[in-house]
Amino acid sequence: MGANKQKNKDLNQLRSDMFELFTTNTNISYSTCMTEASNKVCSFLKADVAVLYQLDEWKGRYHLITDREEMKQKFHETLSLKDFRGTPRQYLFDLTSDEQLSIPKQKEYIQAYQLPLFSDERCLGFMWVGFKEEISLPLSLLDGLALEITRCVNHAVSCYASIEEGQKYELLYNVAAKFHSSIDMDGVLKEIIATLRKIYPEFHYYLLLSQSYTSDSELPVRELTYERDASSKASTHAFLTGEVQIEERKSEMQSFLYAPLKGKQGIYGVLEVAAPSYLYFPQKDIDFFVLISNTAGKALENAKLYMQSRSLIDDLQLINETAHKLNSNMRLTEKISYMASQIKTSFQADEVGFLIFNNENDKQAYSVLDGSSPFFISERAEHLIYEISRMSGKTQEPLFVGDYAAKTGGGECPYQSIMAVPMMAHDQLNGLAVVFKKTPYFFSFDSFKLLQSLVHHSTLAFANSMLREELEKTIITDYLTKLHSRNYLDKCMDKYLEQDELGHFILIDIDNFKKVNDTYGHQVGDAVITQVAQSIKKIVGEQGLAARWGGEELAVYLPSLSIEKAYEMTDYIREEISVVTNPSVTVSCGISSWTAENRPESQRIVQQADDALYTAKGSGKNQIIMAGQAPGSFIF
Questions:
Q1: What pLDDT band is residue 534 in, cutting at 50, 70 and 90?
Q2: Which residues partner with 283 through β-bridges?
Q3: The domain boundary residue, chosen from 253, 283, 307
Q4: CA pair distance 255, 593, nearest whole angstrom
Q5: CB distance 351 to 415 below 8 Å
Q6: At which of 127, 145, 174 does a domain end?
């Protein structure tokens, strides 16, 4: 049991080391990060070598991930799919047999373990661990190790992909800002009209535009309208087909030419040329007008792209600033508050909330992340959130509602414009980001797309914070009993000894625990420890701290209670345990107390409680001994 506990402890430490590796060293390359991870696995298993191969799905081959040249000399840098041997639980390979693995170039290893990295039934790669001597590793350890390596690789890929994506957005912002900084659409249009009037002064010109691209009243601009009988109107036909249209009005003795203003991506209006007293246009003039209209079309397109790029630059700045902030060392609540504030300011929203669904099959089972708008924890929000979850469907598709009352047939909902974007991050996070505005049709579709991008970038940061805080909780919590760890209790005792006026340290040991293990097995023994721990936790409550001290020994620290109250609580714990445990066990307890007049070191308090416990165990067990008290005597 001790060896298994040590392996579990070592595996937890490896998990913590790997998590710290790719969350605190993002300035190193991916290959360096994976080399460090391989080295940690090698050290953990006391192996001679460990290398990682990762699948390149585009090329259908495994690639060696390392920054060490000597490894590239020893191992093949690429392997075909057939070089991967075994199933998810077939780890061990004997390299002395006739069937050699082709992974190392030389036969200096006699035994290898191949740990496959499976995710969603797909093999993402494997870690190859070589030994020059035979060694036997338990299957449970290998299963756990393969899972941890898979998690490490998945998180590293996500982290580095997020960083790379942020760099790309920043590069795009810098290039776009330089390229579009000198666009002058009005000047281009004026030059086109001036050129036409200079060459054909007898013609009249109008720019029929589908959108308002200019505020200059001197330009001959008209709005391009769509009539019911559009097929009979030449200007509309030119706009819809992208082809030059000529209309002859014999009654007016005029000809009209309509040339579409075409860019590379679309048509933005029509150039109207009115030729008084002309019944037709020569081809060379038509060609010239087409050239001019295409120039105008490109100018309008550039203007539109410029305006879009200006908006995009603002969006990218927001995304880049947000991603940078979220990737800093902030707590989850701080990140949620920051994100909610950013969205509320940028989108002029009334309410912003982040929800986590606790049960994938029940969208009503949700929790609101701290930092969301207070509205989301009110009773009014429950029905609205349920309706939003229902409308987004089981797959949680993004939801964009311009008028909630019209969509649902009325109701008393104070918010009409709604945007909801799912937050999904593998198996770590399943939630929804929701934005409300009282005004109907307030959000644009561009705003909706921007929100999706922001949520996409923030979700990974939220998931990483959740994982980090869960790991922090794991470090201060005993994995079996869910009580505090011994280290955590030690630190708290040091603080209490400096601040409080008195306190009591209690060591509790399960009597005859070895007999329980021998009679019922270690699994039942673990269950008994858990029952004892839960009983202690329930009785102590908020009055003190309970921890697993080691093995079947538990500890309680009670600050600021009188010595009589501390003894009464300990005796209640002793009596309760004999009743609630199955199989029934008893406990022996040793208590050490201190006051401000005699403020000892924490080691001294622990030693006194341990001595008292030893006396209790040697005096018949199932009793409480105070430090300095003789067996059978009473101090109250």
A1: very high
A2: none
A3: 307
A4: 108
A5: yes
A6: 174
Residues 29 and 165 in one domain: yes
Residues 6+ apart with CB under 8 A from 46: 135
- pLDDT tens per residue across span 397-456: 788 888 888 777 656 678 888 888 888 766 555 788 888 988 888 888 778 888 888 888
How many domains does the chain divide into?
4
The answer to whether residues 9 and 54 belong to one domain is yes
Sequence-separated (6 or more) residues with CB below 8 Å from residue 627: 590, 591, 592, 593, 608, 609, 611, 612
CA distance 603 to 337: 42
Each residue's pLDDT tens digit, 138-149: 888 888 888 888
Which range (363-367, 384-388, 507-511) has the least confidence?
363-367
212 assigned to some structural domain: yes
> What is the crossing angle of helices 139-179 and 30-45, to 10°?
170
The pLDDT tens digits of the residues spanning 312-347 come to: 666 667 777 776 777 767 777 888 888 888 888 888
Cis status, amide bond into 88, omega within 30 of 0? no
Percentage of the chain lying above the pLDDT 90 cut: 19
The answer to the question of residue 207 being in a domain is yes
pTM beyond cutoff 0.70: no
Ramachandran region, residue 586 (left: φ > 0; alpha: ψ -120 to 50; beta: rest) = beta
> How far apart are the C-alpha atoms of 20 and 16, rounded to whole Å?
6
- If you average pLDDT over residues 260-275, what whole number do you get? 86
Note the pLDDT tens digit of each residue in 192-214.
Answer: 777 778 777 888 888 887 665 56
330, 465 in Cβ contact below 8 A?
yes
Are the C-beta atoms of residues 510 and 552 closer than 8 Å to each other?
yes
CA distance 519 to 522: 9
DSSP string of 62-120, one letter each residue: EEEE-S-HHHHHHB-SEEEGGG--S-TT--EEETTSSS--SSBSS---SEEEEEEEEET
If asked whether residues 294 and 226 sit together in one domain, one would say yes
Give the CATH number for residue 425.
3.30.450.40
Report the SS3 class of residue 45: helix
Q: Which strands form 122-131's sheet, in the order they lie side by side?
A: 78-80, 61-65, 49-56, 122-131, 111-119, 92-94
Judge if 146 and 67 occupy the same domain.
yes
In a 3-state reduction of DSSP, which class is residue 616? Answer: helix
Residue 195 and residue 149 in one domain: no
Task: For residues 397 and 452, give the distance between their C-alpha atoms in angstroms, rounded to a whole number.
Answer: 11
CA–CA distance, 302 with 307 (Å, rounded to integer) = 8
What's the CATH number where 518 sits? Answer: 3.30.70.270
State residue 352 phi and psi, 5-degree precision.
Answer: -135, 130
Q: Considering only CA atoms, which of 509, 479, 475 is closest in space to residue 491?
A: 475
Place of tokens 């949520």: 455
509 and 611 part of one domain: yes
Task: Give the 3-state secondary structure of 188-225.
Answer: HHHHHHHHHHHHCCCCEEEEEECCCCCCCCCCCEEECC
| Residue 37 CA neighbour count, 13 Å, CB half | 35
275 assigned to some structural domain: yes
DSSP labels for 313-337? Answer: HHHHHHHHHHHHHHTSS--HHHHHH
Domain of 74, in residue numbers: 2-174
Mean model confidence pLDDT for the chain? 79
Q: Is 260 found in the same domain as 202?
A: yes
317 in any annotated domain: no
- 160 and 205 inside one domain: no
